[in-house]
Each structure stands twice: as structure tokens, then as C-alpha cells.
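Weekly sync, protein design subgroup
Attendees: M.S., D.O., the rotation student, P.L. (late)

Item 1: inverse folding check
M.S. brought a backbone from last month's batch and wanted to see whether the design step gives back something sensible before we order anything. D.O. pointed out we never logged the input encoding, so this time it goes straight into the notes. C-alpha cells as presented (155 positions):
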């Protein structure tokens, strides 16, 4: 099965409208490496962000995981829209996840598993990656989770 089909089977809208909240590229390509800007979970149809607030105060770990998965969906859409196909991906190299966390909240790795799990669901072993999960006080636009990626492509 192709990565494109695996993403669609996982419910990812690869053609979703993407949010650019500043003067930067969503994807920067250097040779065979894509650097994907921090992405957040978006409401269906481009209606703004989903899952606003801080994990451990405004939402539980499961809602945080859903937010991380939504951020990973936005990463996949960014890569698809940049390359024209996810089938050009060789492997996911690294994810860095930032979790807007309530004081004392320490389960950031469990939250970012939502993003990691989707990468493995779509890419199989090629989706296994190095990762950091970092707790922060606030994220842009009130998002609960932001995830950035480094992805190697076949070109």
C-alpha cells in the first residue's frame, strides 16, 4: 500500500487548508531533507485551530494526544502539498513536540505519542523516528500542541 493511501485510510485530509501564522515557509527543502515548520491541529475545513488550551488544566492526556495527532495530520498535509505525494518520503527522521502544559504536568511524552503513532501508522518502519517532547507555558494561537518534523525524501 502506498503512503498516500495509508494516510487517507487513517483519515488524514491531505488537501486540508493549512495555517501560516507568520512570514515563513511551511516546508523548507535542502537536498533530500524536509524541515517542516511547527504545525498545530486544525479544525476541519480550515476553521481555525482545534484543541486550544493547556494539557493538565483545560484537557486531559487523551485530548492532548488527539491534538498531537492533529498536528501530525497537518505535517502530512504540508509534505503532501509540497511534494505532490507522500510516496516520495524515505523516512521520518525526527519529531519535536511542544505541549502547552499546566504547572506540574509531566506526561508530555504520552501526549506526543499521538503524533508518533500516526507517523508509524502511515509509514510503518519508515515512520520510526527520534523525538523530543517538551513542556511549555504557552503556544501560538492558544494551541495545546505544536509538532515539527524532519523528513528524508527519495529525491
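Designed sequence read out in the meeting:
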Amino acid at each position: 500500500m502506498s503512503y498516500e493511501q495509508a494516510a487517507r485510510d487513517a483519515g488524514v485530509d491531505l488537501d486540508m487548508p493549512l495555517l501560516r501564522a507568520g512570514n515563513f515557509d511551511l516546508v523548507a527543502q535542502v537536498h533530500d531533507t524536509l524541515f517542516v515548520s511547527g504545525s498545530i491541529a486544525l479544525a476541519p475545513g480550515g476553521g481555525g485551530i482545534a484543541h486550544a488550551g493547556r494539557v493538565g488544566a483545560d484537557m486531559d492526556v487523551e485530548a492532548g494526544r488527539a491534538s498531537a495527532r492533529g498536528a501530525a495530520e497537518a505535517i502530512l498535509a504540508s509534505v503532501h502539498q509540497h511534494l505532490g505525494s507522500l510516496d516520495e518520503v524515505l523516512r521520518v527522521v525526527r519529531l519535536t513536540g511542544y505541549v502547552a502544559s499546566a504547572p506540574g504536568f509531566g506526561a508530555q511524552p504520552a501526549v506526543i505519542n499521538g503524533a508518533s503513532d500516526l507517523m508509524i501508522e502511515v509509514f510503518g518502519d519508515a515512520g520510526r523516528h527520534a523525538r523530543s517532547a517538551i513542556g511549555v507555558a504557552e503556544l501560538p494561537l492558544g494551541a495545546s500542541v505544536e509538532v515539527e518534523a524532519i523528513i528524508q525524501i527519495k529525491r
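Discussion: The chain has a mean pLDDT of 96. The longest strand covers residues 89-100.
Action: P.L. to compare against the previous round before Friday.
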